[in-house]
Write a structure and sequence with these properties.
Structural class: alpha/beta
Largest sheet: 5 strands, mixed
Shape: globular
Strand order of the largest sheet: 1-7-6-4-5
Distance between the termini: 15 Å
Strand content: 15-25%
CATH architecture of the largest domain: 3-Layer(aba) Sandwich
CATH topology of the largest domain: Peroxisomal Thiolase, Chain A, domain 1
Radius of gyration: 19 Å
């Protein structure tokens, strides 16, 4: 597994005292629990423009040399190095990118080219923040004999490019940019086995989270929050029952939406806080890359036999989860 963040760190003090977001640290502490995040946009650009025009933000990010594709390539290279796999051994690249700077070609094709991956059925599967679960389930649902030796999955996005930083903005405190990547194989053992168990969507809520093709991120925050907490709890309970797991026996990883929401999940289910892994407080909500980056960042703490349940959610509305075990 691999993960990457852009270089520009954005603090709450910067957003409140310099950019002018109306809600300060007390509000962020009580509602979000996010203290830093990272952006492909420079602090100077956010301060000057409040990101009024996302198209200009894309141009600015390109000039900084940081885009969703570049972050995805960096995460993929880290994953390849960790796995000891050469790009030419990868037979299929799957990517998601909620904030593409290019309409075509696919992000997967651009990442494959940058890495030196050969021909294959490279494609994007975009399911917003639930894309990690979508990718894992898609690969697992294919007969093993039809899979290439190695599959590369990449989750990447730059939501700060689509974030409104005007004074009344809440989203400015939430979003960060980042990428994650995973090397999968049905023929070779890695440090983690994975069993995708759930992936579903309810299109009746499709318009509750949206990004217009050239506009800012928008959501029905209250409805999405209620849905996320309820559905995450339901997934953890369903998967734990199927695998006959007790809370104290398993690490849990949820969608990295915000720290306070995860506290609610811990409280509802009685999870041991030390077994619930998260990074949102340090890097913000980096969408589909959030949950896999948590696993990647904690890989050194896992010992043979350790068990992990993951549960993620995204626009659509969609949700998915599964089981991992350390080898």
């Amino acid at each position: 597994m691999g993960w990457q963040l852009p270089k520009n760190e954005i603090s709450n003090d910067f957003l409140h005292k310099e950019v002018g977001l109306e809600r300060g640290n007390d509000w962020v502490d009580s509602r979000l629990g996010i203290y830093t995040r990272y952006s492909v946009l420079s602090r100077e650009y956010i301060l000057k423009t409040k990101n009024a025009n996302p198209v200009h933000a894309m141009i600015h990010a390109r000039s900084n040399g940081e885009t969703p594709v570049i972050l995805g390539v960096r995460a993929a290279r880290q994953a390849l190095n960790e796995a000891g796999v050469r790009p030419e051994q990868v037979g299929w690249v799957i990517a998601n990118n909620d904030t593409p700077f290019e309409t075509i070609p696919s992000t997967a094709s651009l990442i494959a080219k940058a890495l030196g991956v050969g021909s294959g059925p490279h494609c994007d599967m975009n399911a917003a923040c639930s894309s990690f679960a979508r990718h894992m389930k898609a690969v697992a649902d294919i007969k093993e004999e039809r899979l290439p030796e190695f599959v590369l999955c990449v989750q990447t996005s730059c939501y700060t490019v689509r974030t409104d930083y005007s004074p009344s903005s809440i989203d400015g405190y939430i979003w960060g940019d980042g990428a994650a990547a995973e090397i999968l194989s049905a023929r070779h053992d890695g440090p983690l086995s994975i069993e995708p168990m759930i992936y579903e969507g309810d299109p009746s809520g499709a318009e509750q989270i949206m990004i217009d093709s050239t506009g800012h991120f928008i959501q029905d925050g209250a409805a999405v929050r209620e849905f996320s907490i309820r559905k995450t709890c339901e997934m953890f309970e369903e998967m734990a029952q199927k695998k006959m797991l007790y809370a104290e026996d398993v690490y849990t990883v949820a969608h990295q939406a915000n720290f306070v929401m995860q506290d609610s999940i811990i409280g509802h289910l009685g999870l041991p806080a030390e077994m619930h892994l998260r990074n949102v407080q340090r890097q913000g909500n980096i969408a589909a890359a959030g949950a896999p980056s948590v696993v990647a960042q904690n890989r050194d703490r896992f010992h043979k036999g350790d068990k992990i349940l993951y549960a993620v959610l995204g626009s659509g509305l969609a949700w998915g989860g599964g089981y991992m075990e350390a080898r």
